[in-house]
Amino acid sequence: MTTTLTTTPMSEAGHRLPTPADVPGRAGELLASLGERAVLCDLYDAVGASVYHDLAGTGTHEVRELLALVRRIPGPVLDLAAGSGRLTLPLLALGREVTALELSPYMLELLDRRLADAPPALRGRCLPVRADMSDFALGRRFGAIVLGTTTISLLDAEGRQGLYRAVREHLEPGGRFLLSTVDMTATASGPAEVDMEIVTDSGRAYRLFEHWTPDAGSRTVTLFPAVTAATGPVQVCTTTIGVLPAELLEAELAAAGFSVRSRHPLPAVGERHHDVLLETEVTP
């Protein structure tokens, strides 16, 4: 069962509803060509959550590296922005107690379904919680707090400050805060927009556009069905994500009272995604 906490007021899925004006480049042109047939969805709403979950199951980006760090850290784990459990289930498989914190109720529904199909011993070690990662109070501490998939980029500067405060309050003495972000020093410039087709493990295929120039402060990801019918509605999912370079993140963490213990470059995803996993602790 999911526990719900009072959080900073936000939309139900944690994002404002997208508009066609939010979609730049060729993705925007394709969206415009669909006209009224296009049904635009946020990537974390009732429709988008299922698409995000489908895509998240296609790879193990950063999972192996994160689990290797968690193995060395005793105690329960807090998985922030847990989504449908991309990291939660592997963390549970380590034999740990895991609190899975997520704001989107649609993501939590997917996680609850996955837990219902899991072995009872694994399911019994997980507590899903609906809360905002920038403002939460769980009344307990954790040996490790993790925030993967460069999700910190979804928060603005004020939200990140709230996150740092909450993490400090929930870490055990000597605990670790593990989080990933973009390593701009390793990220190739590349084209402004990438257009690729992705076939997921479920067999569904998507056409994914990512519009981003490294000097921009955000990137826009838009997903269409790889094949669209000649008539009828077409669901299009999009989200705009901030880009937080590792150097800026490390400076913010230092100002918030964290020390970076280690920096782990992550395997590249395509030509433009060079991320880094930071292992941090509260500065003594």
Present the secondary structure layout.
Blueprint: E1 3-4, H1 25-34, E2 38-42, H2 46-56, H3 63-70, E3 77-80, H4 88-93, E4 98-102, H5 105-116, H6 120-123, E5 126-130, E6 142-147, H7 157-170, E7 171-182, E8 193-199, E9 205-211, E10 218-225, E11 234-242, H8 246-255, E12 258-265, E13 275-282
Parallel strand pairs: 1-5, 2-11, 3-4, 3-6, 4-5, 6-7
Antiparallel strand pairs: 7-13, 8-9, 9-10, 10-11, 12-13
Helix pairs in contact: 2-5
Supply database-style keywords:
about 280 residues, alpha/beta, Rossmann fold, 8-stranded mixed β-sheet, globular, disordered N terminus
Short précis:
The protein is an alpha/beta fold and 284 residues long. Helix content is 26%, strand content 30%.
Task: Describe the fold and architecture.
The chain has 284 residues and is an alpha/beta fold. It folds into two domains: 20-56 and 186-242, no CATH class; 59-184 and 244-282, Vaccinia Virus protein VP39 (Rossmann fold, 3-Layer(aba) Sandwich), CATH 3.40.50.150. It contains eight helices and 13 strands. The protein has helices spanning 25-34, 46-56, 63-70, 88-93, 105-116, 120-123, 157-170, 246-255; strands at residues 3-4, 38-42, 77-80, 98-102, 126-130, 142-147, 171-182, 193-199, 205-211, 218-225, 234-242, 258-265, 275-282. The strands form two sheets. Strands 1-5-4-3-6-7-13-12 form an eight-stranded mixed beta sheet, sandwiched between helices. A five-stranded mixed beta sheet has the order 2-11-10-9-8, sandwiched between helices. α7 links the parallel β6 (142-147) and β7. α2 crosses α5 (105-116). The longest helix is centred in the middle third of the chain and has 14 residues, at 157-170. 39% of the residues are buried. Mean pLDDT is 89; it is low at 1-11.
